[in-house]
Amino acid sequence: MRYLPHTRDDIDSMLKVTGHASLDDLFNCIPDHLKTKQGIDIPEGLSEWELNTHMEALASQNIACKTYTCFIGAGSYDHYIPAIIPYLISRSEFMTAYTPYQPEVSQGTLQGIYEFQTMVTELLGMDVATASHYDCGTALAEACLIALRKGGANRKIAVSSLVHPSHRQIIQTYIHPAGYEMVEIPYTKEGLTDAAALEKMEGIAGIAVQSPNVFGNIENLKAFKTAADAKNSLFIVSFTEALAYGLLKNPGSFGADLVAGEGQSLGIAKSFGGPGLGLLAGTQKQMRNLPGRLIGKTKDANGADGFVLTLATREQHIRREKASSNICSNNGLNAMTAAMYLATVGKTGIREIAQQNHDKAVYLKKCLTASGFEPILDSPFFNEFVMKAPQSFAEKRKHLIQNNCIFAGLDLEPYYPELKGHYLFCATETVSKKDMDHLAKEVKS
What three-state secondary structure class fits 88? Predict the structure, then answer.
């Protein structure tokens, strides 16, 4: 980005045009009681090398994942990113985060989004996918809004209590101002959503379940599809670990109406928490209700392949009152990254990576059990699981971070108060057997 400073002469010439004597006079329209009296405490300027030193010192206070071994997942996962991905995505042709408004002159970008949408539908078993959204939480909230808008007199959305806690908060933020209500479906002692609890719930426009859920357990999606059909509700499936569907049956095979998930695992770095990649897909029946944009493939006047902005249901394309959403900006760069990742690893690669994730998590659980942890849930899981820790673990965990550069699980108590002393552990292909054996040894000693 170019830096264009204003010289004193530049400022004087501009003030002459505006008819003001000084820069302060430009703000005379602001009432005095709204102006700061003391001024702003801005440090003195630094030379270039001093500023670089200062920024490096600030950066050194952060903890970089590359220097730490991380056994935390909970919606953001460490995965190997093939070297070709950062090389390609950094090219100037791709370095844009937005869908173009003149698609006829942006064929490359549109083709990239088209390929992304195609691969997402194949991964999730759905008919159509949108161009992408901010993250899983916002995509899931949009899916819930679709169900509520189609629900008529039914003004409630039933959301599993094992949907990621942050995503449940986002849903509340979206639907509460519109007068809708979110009711939570409790979970069982097996760490699964209690489908039987839905029988007593009335006025339900949609049912949202995460699988694998926040505990890493695999839900019985068939049971929730049956419950949704019985209540004439839309069935929504969410996920935070896209690679799980390299092994698991996809949501489409269970009859999901809408699927919303997080695509960060598809070649996107964790980057201190973001940005993520919201995936949202649906059946053909839901196509016109989906927010955002859909890219299609056609032929031009000469018979050559061409890509077009087929459907755009946001307020910048159609009348605001007709828009399905007005806050669904496309994370275009991350969507392109995910498309590159999926094309690079392919179907076989995704299955192999998913198998490694599952197998390593099983091994880690076995190691921790031998080290004094208690496995409290006996449900099938993917790459994360819940363990009850020995009483001394809380202090030992702090020691592991400070002295061993190990993040040993996520404390679940702040999110589920009834699970005091329980931790969520995760293992992906990035942790080695040596790493897991080392953790087991440290927590046992």
Answer: helix
